[in-house]
Amino acid sequence: MARYRGALSLGRPFFAAAAVARLGVAMSGLAVFWAVQGASGSFGRAGAATGAFAVAEALVGPQIARLVDRWGQRRVMPVTTALFAVAASLLIVACAGPWPAWSMVALAAVVGATVPAVGALSAARWRRVAARRDGDGTAGILTVALSLEGAVNDAAFLAGPVLVTTLGTVLAPWSGLALAVSLLVAGMTGLLLDSGSEPVPGGVSRGVLVDRRLLNRGFAALFAANLALGFFFGGIGVAITAFAFAHQAEALSGLVTAAAGAVSLVAGLIYGAVAPARPARVMLAAGLVLVAGCAMLSLTPAVAVMFAGYAVVGGCVALVLIPGSILLQRAAVPDVYTQAMTWINSASALGIAASAPLIGVVVERHGWSAGFLVLAALTACLPVTIAVLPGGGPVPPTPHRAD
C-alpha cells in the first residue's frame, strides 16, 4: 500500500480524471452498437458501424498521437475531443431520428477516429512525473503507476458494458452513448486542466506514418505481441459464448468473462506491489499460460470448470499488459511515447478484428472445442514474440529533458 500511496501522491489529479474518461472509452464501442441496432433494428448495420468505429480508431489514433507528441496534449486534444463530442452527438440524433443507415456508419467512423486515447495520454503523464524523482526508483514508480492504470482499465471494461446494456434496456438504445460522451468530455477536461503533469512536446516527428525512432527491435516485438494478444481478446469471447450455448447456459457467458476480469485486476495490483525486476520473464510466463490454458479449455466438461479455468487463464492478461507497458519505456523515448502507446493499442485492435470473425466461423462449423484450439494456435504468437525482446534485465530509470 505504501507503493500505491507514493504513486498516487504524484499523479492523483490527472489519474482521477483519466479514470472517468477511461470509463467513457470502455463504453463507446458497445454504445455505438446499441445505438445503431436500436435505431435500425439490424444487427448487420450495427456490426458495420462498430467495425467502422474500430478500424478508424486503429488507423487514425496513432496519427493523432503523433500530433500530441509534437505539439502537446493541451494544444491537440481539446480539438479532437470536441470533434468526438460533436460526431457522437450527431450519431445520437441520427439514431433518434429517421437518418439513413450509411450516415450512422459514417458518423461511427468519425467517432472512432477521434475518440481520445486516454490510456496513452495518462501513461505519458505518469512517465513525466515519475522521471522527476531522483535516484533509481523511477522504474519502480512506473511499475506501480502502470499497475494502477491496468486495474482501472479492467474495472472500466467490467463496468462499462453493464452500464451500456442497462441504460439501453431501461431508457433508450442511444442513452449509453450519451453517458459515454459525457464521461469522456468531463474526464478529458479534468486531465487537460492539470498542466503540471503534461509531457513536454517533442518537436517535429521523423518519418511519414511511423516515427523512425520507433523502428527498433524492442518496439516491433511489443507490437507483434499485442497483435497476438488481440487475437486472444477477439476470439475468447466468441469461444466462451459458443461453449455457454452448447451447455444451455447462455446467460452465464458474461459472468465467466467478468470473473476472469476481476482476477486479472487483482493480479495486476499484486504485480505493482511486488514490482518484479525482470518484466519480460513475467510476460513470457503469462503468455505461455494463455496458450496452454486456451488449449486445455477445449476439454472443459462443465460450466463450473469453465469458471475456474478461465479465471486462471484470463487472470494472466494483466501480467502480459503491465510488463509490456514497462518494457515500452525502453523501446520508446519520451518524444514518441504517446504514439508508441497508441500503436500498441492499434495492434491489439487489429488482432481483435482478425480473430473474432475467424473463431466465429470455426465454432459455427466445428464446434466450441475447435474454437479454443484454433485460438490457442493464434495466441502462440504471443510467447514467441516476447522471447525475442532485446534484453531481460531490470528497466532503467527514465531519462527526461529539463523543463
Automatic annotation (TrEMBL):
Q: Where are the transmembrane segments?
A: 12-36, 42-64, 76-99, 105-126, 171-193, 214-245, 251-275, 282-301, 307-328, 340-362, 368-389
Q: Which SUPFAM superfamilies match?
A: MFS general substrate transporter
| Protein name listed in UniProt | Putative MFS family arabinose efflux permease
Question: Could you name the Gene Ontology cellular component terms for this entry?
Answer: plasma membrane
Give the bilayer topology: Multi-pass membrane protein
Record GO terms (molecular function):
transmembrane transporter activity
The record's InterPro entries line, in alphabetical order, gives: MFS, MFS_dom, MFS_trans_sf
- Taxonomically, the superkingdom here is Bacteria
Q: Which residues form the Major facilitator superfamily (MFS) profile domain?
A: 175-403
Statement: the UniProt record of this protein carries the keyword Repressor = no
- Record localization: Cell membrane
Where is the major localization of this protein?
membrane
Q: What is the lineage of its organism?
A: Bacteria, Bacillati, Actinomycetota, Actinomycetes, Micromonosporales
- Tell me the keywords, alphabetical order: Membrane, Transmembrane, Transmembrane helix
| Keyword field contains Membrane | yes
